[in-house]
Amino acid sequence: MTFEDLENARKAYIEASRKSTSPVIISVALWIVIILTIATFPLAAVISFPVFIIDAYFLAKALKTKKEKVEIYNSMYKAFFVEQSINKIFTEVDYHHEAGMPASELKETGMIRMGDVYYSNDLFTAKYHNVSLKQADVDILQSHEDSDGNTYYTTVFKGRWMIYEFPKKFTFRLQVIQKGFNAAIKLNENRELKRKIKKITTESPTFNDLFMVYAEDDFEAYYLLDPAFIDHLEQISTKQQGKIMLCFTDNKLHIAIYDKKDAFEPANPRKPIDKTAELAKINQEIKTITDFVDFLKLDRKLFKNN
Question: To the nearest 10°, the Cα dihedral for 261, 265, 268, 273?
Fold first, then answer.
């Protein structure tokens, strides 16, 4: 697929959007006339029914075409910009922009509030410096009911969820929560683990102001959270717009970034695509993934098989 193909898909969406505008305007005007007519001549309601059916058909058809065109554009955008870019950085890439991360993978950590509604997409798995990883956008909502019995939803978590997998299995559980990450379930809230969990304070006042640390084993925690690790995590946190949580469990490191947005989102199809700007945006979002490996040195001896 070429950039020209993507531009043609964008223009096709604009054309479909333009064509859908007229049916909407006509529909609104038609129903204003029908309502005023019925108010004056009630018997006109009988005639209005077939008019409603015909109007609804053409309106639905126009809106369906518009939706199909934007879906084609989004799919081609991700194939051209996202898939090509991640294949340059990672190996063993498997990318499915419509698939998501199973809710069970988050739930099994016991460290995130799962709410009532779960949605995920843009899943890809890959390897980077021999570290196996996966990432997806995740959206978790909590349902509520107001005094009138109406249901509404609030966001529990919206952002990126990354999982890094290593040959070495951790013998303890460690959780690092940036203050303000309100979707977290702290390890010391787990009834089964409560007696084992300790709140850790590091030697870095800056880090302690930014993060809360909970661990089953303080010796192992201090071994992992060495000065270099702490320094790099502080640097990463200052680069992120959202809040971060890290969970070490079994042989995996889960990293959640609560920034209230999706990664790898297509450019606005109503505007010409700035190829340079889009590539820079995608590469920056990829760098978020690789920074955790590079800065935290996840591929070094600490995570090698013993």
Answer: 140
Q: Which residues pair with 121 in a beta bridge?
A: 137
Q: Is 240 exposed, middle or buried (0-12, 13-18, 19+ CB in 10 A)?
A: middle
Pairing of strands 117-128, 131-145: antiparallel
Q: What are phi and psi of 200, to 5 degrees?
A: -100, 135
Q: What is the pLDDT at residue 26?
A: 63
- The amino acid at residue 18 is R
Residues of the chain with pLDDT under 70: 21-31, 33-34, 36-38, 41-52, 54-60, 62-63, 168-170, 298-306
pLDDT in tens, 270-304: 899 999 999 999 999 999 899 888 877 765 544 55
CA 202 to chain CA mean position, Å:
31
pLDDT of residue 29: 64
Predicted model pTM: 0.82
Please indicate, yes or no, whether residues 128 and 193 belong to a single structural domain of this protein: yes
Where are any strands of DSSP class E within 14-148?
Answer: 91-96, 117-128, 131-145
31 and 167, same domain (yes or no): no
Q: Sheet of 211-215: strands edge to edge?
A: 91-96, 117-128, 131-145, 151-165, 252-258, 243-249, 174-178, 211-215, 198-200
Of 49, 83, 117, the residue at which a domain comes to its end is 83
Phi, psi of 250 (to 5 degrees): 55, -125
Q: Do residues 237 and 178 touch, judged by C-beta distance below 8 A?
A: yes
Query: Which range marks the domain in which residue 194 is found?
Result: 93-303
